[in-house]
Amino acid sequence: MATQTLTTFDAILKNLYRGPIVELLNQETYLIDQLEQTNANDIGTFTGRQIIIPVHTSRNRGRGATTDGGGLATAGAQGYLDAIVPPRYFDQGIELSDMVIKQSENDEGAFVRALTSEMEGAMTDLRKDISRMAYGTGDGLLATITGTPAAGTSITVDSGQYIAVGDVVDIVLKATGVVTNGVAATTVTAVSFTGSANSATQAAATLTISVATGGATANTYGVYISGDRNNESDGLRNITSTSRTLHQINSSTNPIWDGNVFPAGQVNPSEDLFMQAAQRIRLRAGNKGTSIDCFLTTLGVQRRLANQYVSQKRWNDAHVVDIDGGYSAIMVAAGNKPIPVISDVDAVNGFAFALSKDSLAWAEVARPDWLLAPDGKGSILQLKDGSTAGSKLAIWQAWIVWYATLVCVAPLRNAQLSGFNDDVPVARV
Fold first, then answer.
1. Is residue 158 scored above 90 in pLDDT?
2. Is 355 helix (H, G, I), strand (E, B) or coil?
3. 80 bridge partner residues
4. For the chain, which has fewer Cβ within 10 Å, the N-terminal or C-terminal residue?
């Protein structure tokens, strides 16, 4: 007598799929969301080659005190410089076969339409990457090599916070962009963090990567998204820094163009240091300096600040305050009014930034949109080279582009606080 079993009945059993698709990726982009709402000097959308912003940089020093019949002061003049900001070009590409597009066109065939899923995902991923750039150093640097790896081995870097498995990166000389002992367009296959919390190495990591040749000397070679070196937007780290060139003005010779820098020296965050930053901004910028809108920092720094309040029995200050957009903050008495300290998942490990939104602008040539094919028909899909339309081998490509940049018209109204104790970063996906 034959027995019916799962093995013999397998052809009749159904696979049960429960939709919709569950989102596992963190899609928060707090900083870029905020920057889109700022409009310093009414910059907003612009056309042309670049933005030129006149800035007042020095006083009339033709001054003096004299005696009866004495000589008059030598005449002076106000000083001005042009801040020059070119647009940056961000893009994200998608590629699908003709058949996957056709076979996922209705709900019976798939949970989502492949084309719609890829297009919406590309937009989200583009915003996420720009959110990372907005905290950057303006040159695209993700990390600096800290060891001297042999050919074909893994490498150690000072920070793996913004590097993910699957990233295609260049390892090149930071000063020149030349490959020499580095490697171009290689894929990261693993990221493991080697630092420890509350230390200067908390974001340090090892990357599993193929280095073509040996000798990528520590501190002279950097890791960049392939092709991104010197092509990314300015970010908060170089905007708030000192003795650097920002918007083509060198603050080494024009210190009025410096930001404000406060190294914490690897300690827990304190309200006193936040207050120092706010007071320095007020001293340099006057009444404009009293308009700090927020401090942006990491989850770990925000939590350590709240823990300081708890240890001081300042229960109300440690409580989280709801702010716009579903985010929350704790407050510091760092100005003429309490200022929120907001955590952002993309913030730089160990840093906090004091921001005056009226000094910042997200300038764009146009809103992000899909690149149109030059066929006069407004098509965003383009056949990949070697493909044949309508065949099973047809491969379609499309790119979403965003021509924009982060502009700061007054760096002295912003500050960076660095070297806070923080958590070891979580691997990015």
1. yes
2. strand
3. 56
4. N
**Residue 163 lies in domain:** 141-230
Looking at the fold, whether 121 and 208 belong to one and the same domain comes out as: no
Strand ranges (DSSP E) for 174-327?
183-187, 190-193, 205-208, 221-225, 245-246, 249-250, 260-267, 294-297, 321-322
Residues 159 and 120 in one domain: no
Phi, psi dihedral angles at 255 (to 5 degrees): -60, -15
What CA–CA distance (Å, rounded) separates 212 from 155? 12
Query: Do residue 221 and residue 305 come from a single domain?
Result: no
Answer whether 62's CB lies under 8 Å from 46's CB.
no
Residue 29 CA to residue 80 CA, distance in Å, equals 35
Q: Please state, in angstroms and as integers, the Cα–Cα distance from residue 183 to each residue in 4, 137, 150, 366, following that order.
A: 60, 22, 12, 35
Instruction: Note the maximum CA span of the chain.
Output: 130
Domain identity same for 156 and 285: no
Instruction: Return the pLDDT at 378.
Output: 73
Residue 65: phi, psi to the nearest 5?
Answer: -120, 140
DSSP per residue, 329-382: EEEE--SSS-EEEEE-TTSPTT-EEEE-GGGEEEEESS--EEPPPTTSS----E
Which residue carries 């490959």 as its tokens?
179
Q: What are the beta bridge partners of residue 88?
A: 404
Alpha carbon distances (Å) from 200 to 135, 195, 296, 317, 423: 19, 8, 20, 28, 11
From residue 326, alpha-carbon distances to 96, 117, 250, 299 in Å are 35, 25, 39, 15
**Which residues, in sequence order, are bridge partners of residue 351?**
none
Torsions phi, psi of 360, nearest 5?
Answer: -120, 150
Element (H, E) at 415: strand 415-420
Shared domain for 243 and 280, answered yes or no, is yes
Structure tokens at 384: 């990949």
> pLDDT digits over 301-322, tens only?
999 999 988 777 665 555 566 6
Rounded-to-integer distance, Cα 296 and Cα 308, Å: 18
Query: Is residue 20's pLDDT more than 80?
Result: no
Question: In terms of Cα–Cα distance, which of 281, 286, 283 is closest to 412?
Answer: 281
Averaged pLDDT of the chain? 86
Same domain, yes or no: 165 and 105: no
The continuous run of DSSP H or E covering 309 comes out as helix 299-311
